[in-house]
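Work Package 3 (structural annotation) set out to generate three-dimensional models for the target panel prioritized at the project kickoff. During this period the team completed the workflow that converts sequence records into discrete structure tokens, so that structures can be stored uniformly alongside our sequence database. As a representative example, we reproduce one entry of 331 residues exactly as it appears in the project archive.
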Amino acid sequence: MQPAAGEELCSPAAHGMATRPPGCSVDLHQLLESTYVHGTSSRSMRIEQGTFDSTDARIKQDIVRMIVQYLEKEGYVSSMMTLQDEAAVKASEQQTRRTMLRRAKKLILEGQWEEVNKICSKFATKTQNRMHKSFMYTMYKQQFLELVERREVQKAFNKLTNSLKPLEGYQSEPNEFKELCYMLTCNSVQDVPSFRDWNPSSGRQSMCDQFTLMLNLEEYPDDMSLSKVPPDRLVEMMHQAVAYQIEFNRYQPSVTPRVSTLLEDYTTCVLPSTTVHTLTAHKANVKCVTWVGEDGQAVATGSSDCDVRLWETESGPVSYTHLTLPTKRIV
């Protein structure tokens, strides 16, 4: 978009914006896909998701403890106690699951399949049905493979038809069940290429790993008290966040601003005051002007002449693209 004849453009370059090297072209698609936001610093650090893992149990527990501390200080006693109780219950449930996991691993490694099945039956109502059935398929497959390894063909056949066949849809590989059927005609498990590296020990260990994933355990610290939480930790972190936004803002305020809300990121309101270019191309009144792209690399203008023009802020007077709209003028 472009300003009409005589329209003046006050470029951010006049206010300390980093300029591009001469001859460096601007990618129109990149500009149109991005939105220029006042207050974005050219030296701003990117806040990466990898800074910390928000799904980590200890990080989540730290957040809960900071919130509990804030609620206690502000007098929200009922809310604080409710949150503490819920956190304690969740931690207790995780401890119960950890105990179950230790017992299940021991039984799996010992090959006590009936006991493993009992534990899985208790756990089945507390997990996703598909995960449970997938584990049951793996357990029956392990039993089948060990029977084949011991050349107990009839028992292996019964396990295949009675236990594995109903769960065929939960096989880990598309043709795995067919390979298990073929295995009944082989001298050993290793005669089937995809099971060449299998042995009873590695198979049972793999089952332990799958059972651990199924439980979806999280590690919770034993100490749930607030004794290790620094004073006013939540509010202090809010101050740090706002200070970071102010420090890395494009335009540094001369006086430390007073932030009235934490629901929006801080941005400095700047009104350009220096005329850098006068843009002349529109044949009627300019109705709208806006920055386009990160760092304000371009300006878009719309006019009553039905043209929308895009200008590079450094080259100024010459627009490098424009779009003519249908008969209706821009308002």
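The beta strands are 7-9, 277-279, 286-292, 298-303, 307-312, 319-324.
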